[in-house]
Amino acid sequence: MSQPVGHTRTRRAAYTKPDLMTTPSILLSIPAPRSGAFTAARPLAICGQHADSQPHADQPALAHQHGSLARYGDRVVCAVLANSSDQHNRSWLDALAEAGWDAGPASALRAHARDHFVVVGVNEATGQVFAATDRFSTRPVYWHRGPEQWLISTDLGLLVKQLRTSPTPSPQALYDYLYFHNIPAPRTVYEGIYKLPPASVLVWEAAAASGAVADINGHGADESITIWWRPEPAKAEAHADQYDGQALLGALEQGINSQQPRSRSACFLSGGLDSSTVVELLGRSGRETHAFSIGFAGAEDYDELPFAEKSAAHAGATLHTQRLTPADLDQAIELITTGYDEPFGNSSAVPTLACARLAREAGFDHLFAGDGGDELFAGNERYAEQLKIARLARLAPLAQLAGWVAPNLPGLPLRSKSRRLADIAGLDVPARLERYNFVHRLGVDALLTRAFKQRVDTASPLDTKRARFMEGLSDADTLQAMLYLDWKFTLADSDLPKVTRMCDLAGVRVHYPLLTDAVVDFSLKVPSAQKLAKGELRAFYRNAMRGFLAPETLSKSKHGFGLPFGVWLGSDQKLRQRLDDSLASLGQRHLIQPELLRKVKTLVHEGHAGYYGELGWILMSLEHWLLAHAPDFRLAP
Q1: Residue range 363-393, pLDDT digits in tens
Q2: What pLDDT, on the 0 to 100 scale, is given for residue 210?
Q3: pLDDT digits (tens, 9 = 90+) for 111-161
Q4: Is 584 buried (19+), middle (13-18) or exposed (0-12) by CB count in 10 A?
Q5: How confident is the model at residue 414, as a pLDDT?
Q6: 28: closest CA among 206, 255, 214, 285?
Q7: Any bridge partners for residue 25, and if so which?
Q8: Is 190 helix (H, G, I), strand (E, B) or coil?
Q9: Angle, in degrees to the nearest 10, between helices 573-587 and 609-629
Q10: Cβ 356 vs Cβ 505: under 8 Å
């Protein structure tokens, strides 16, 4: 078997708490105005590097760390974070300014914004304050509008430090966490603090009277949140013949180049389609390319290092690897579960951080990631499954037969399958996608205490997904609507915060070339029938990349950076004890039914580690986060 240009295997030192002063961030602080935000007596203070305290308690201030500042005329000031080059970034900001602010930030962004950014700005002449995220919220924007101060920041922890009273965790947000394993926008874990959804712009008319109270969607009487970009997918009758491999490669190369790769480039590498595409593009550009991969000791089903080795060899890249052990995980748990500003339960954060730290210690401060390809080009098994179910549901006689066979012919082997088909076909797509969700499998009453259940709307998470799906379905087909759903709930709310935050903790900047405008816009030109031709995942992409990617990569099934937490629980006493202690501590908060907490421990220990191990990770992560950020939070029983 061919080998990578170089291959280093690493054993790491102990995990230590990082210095986050290298993390890019923006903070805008405004004492809540009674009659206009910016006056001669209270001009906007500009700080090149933010501090926890503002220049003066009554003075509005805009601060940034490792960002850039753009000033237009005498009154408009913007702080910007962007992963593209300064020249690329400044070009669209200048175009935005030339378009004029009178039309409003949303229309200006729609016409001129590019790739990945956060922009926070003020117009001192009009008192208008605005903040915007890119198409996928590659960095979040949080905001709070209270009676005494208005705050906008890309760092929730920094925003919380500015508050004069500590915020309270929201029971509804904690329920959202149990449902999604994160807290999707617009909520945050705290009451009264919100985050912007992807491709949205927040506008405050600061000259208006303060005191407006935001509703659950984050809208008050004198503010607005507008979606500035929506996808326009190809129609069903369109043809993708013209979008061959060369056209796709051209879009991918443009995506890489717009992210300003260094002469020595580094990337995550799992050996799958997307990370292998990135390493090939970097390798064929003539740059010295390094790739970083993680394996797992004693968990071969999770270990993808053999695929990563083949991809690195094909691209001519130097591969750096590490096999994590239960001891490595035990050292990293506290840092990872408490390192997020909100509870976050995606266990693949563990190998993500390990990769990023390997890169940092090898001398790299920028990493390329392959996130987004599956959500652009239909690479998740659920897409094919849902289209099959939809086709069956349209066959009325079959659906009627399934509904009749189940109760009337219980002795037939077909009974269970037909009943299952009838039950599944009767659900809408968002509900079918969530049928394996812990909340639905276990049941709300078995999961939540009565005190917790009384404080939340248990239908809200699925209703939110339905609304997003229907929004995507309004001018697209079912597949594109599912992709649009995942652009928010899988990418913006889960995968991108996972990777971005872990790279922040490692002191590395991350780039997402597959989510640049060039690649996204290209993907929208490819009809759904081509993306998922004959039910084959990534059909168009695989066909287009033949001759560019290694044959083993093209035939590889989807895997990703999973974590064998449940497997390791079966063999590692220290991890089991950590889980037991966390569940016992969580039980004191009166959120989760005591019987369920006992059941999780029992079933994990008795061999149901795969399923209940993941639930154990989610609950353990929640308790670790609460201990670090809200130790006194509990509900009255």
Answers
A1: 998 999 999 999 999 999 999 999 888 777 6
A2: 40
A3: 778 899 898 988 777 778 889 999 999 999 999 998 888 899 999 999 999
A4: middle
A5: 47
A6: 206
A7: 65
A8: strand
A9: 60
A10: yes
Q: Which range, 34-43, 211-220, 621-630, is most confident?
A: 621-630
d(Cα 224, Cα 221) in Å, to the nearest integer? 8
Q: How far apart are CA 162 and CA 574, in angstroms?
A: 38
d(CA 463, CA 467): 6
Between 463 and 396, the higher pLDDT residue = 463
pLDDT (0 to 100) of residue 124: 77
pTM reported for the whole predicted model: 0.90
The beta strand positions in 96-214, using DSSP E, are: 117-123, 128-133, 142-145, 149-153, 193-195, 200-205
| pLDDT more than 70, % of the chain | 78
Closest CA to 61 of 167, 202, 165, 162: 162
For 445-461, the pLDDT digits (tens) are: 999 999 999 999 999 99
CA-to-CA dists, residue 55 to 22, 30, 336, angstroms: 22, 11, 33
Would you state the structure tokens that stand for residue 349, as one six-digit string?
């954060």
Place of tokens 């990872």: 336
Q: What is the mean pLDDT of residues 288-301?
A: 90
User: 3-state SS string over 477-518?
Assistant: CHHHHHHHHHHHHHHHHHHHHHHHHHHHHHCCEEECHHHCHH
Long-range contacts, 303-308 (Cβ 8 Å, 24+): 304/270, 304/271, 304/272, 304/559, 305/271, 306/271, 307/270, 307/271, 307/272, 307/552, 307/553, 307/556, 307/559, 308/269, 308/270, 308/271
CA-derived radius of gyration, the chain: 25
Residues 6+ away with beta carbon under 8 Å from 359: 266, 290, 292, 320, 367, 506, 508
> Which H or E run includes 289?
strand 288-296
CB-based contacts of 524, cutoff 8 Å, min separation 6: 231, 232, 233, 234
The two tokens of residue 516 are: 């640049």
Tell me the C-alpha distance between 532 and 534, whole Å. Answer: 6
Q: How confident is the model at residue 208 (pLDDT cuts 50, 70, 90)?
A: very low
Residue 164 CB neighbours (<10 A) = 8
> Which tokens in the block code for residue 616?
């154990």
E strand or H helix at 76, and its extent? strand 76-82
For residue 304, the Cα-to-chain-centroid distance in whole angstroms is: 22
Are 452 and 171 in contact by the 8 Å Cβ rule? The answer is: yes
Tell me the per-residue pLDDT of 494-508, one tens digit each, with 9 for 90 and over. Answer: 999 999 999 999 999
Q: First CA to last CA across the chain, in angstroms?
A: 61
- Give bridge partners of residue 366 from the DSSP assignment: 509
- C-alpha span between 181 and 174 (Å, rounded): 9
CA 277 to chain centre: 21
Block residue for tokens 């002795």: 411
The partner residues of 80 in beta bridges, in order of sequence, read 68, 119
Residue whose pair of structure tokens reads 């094919």 in the numeric block: 384
Two structure tokens written together for 350: 């563990």
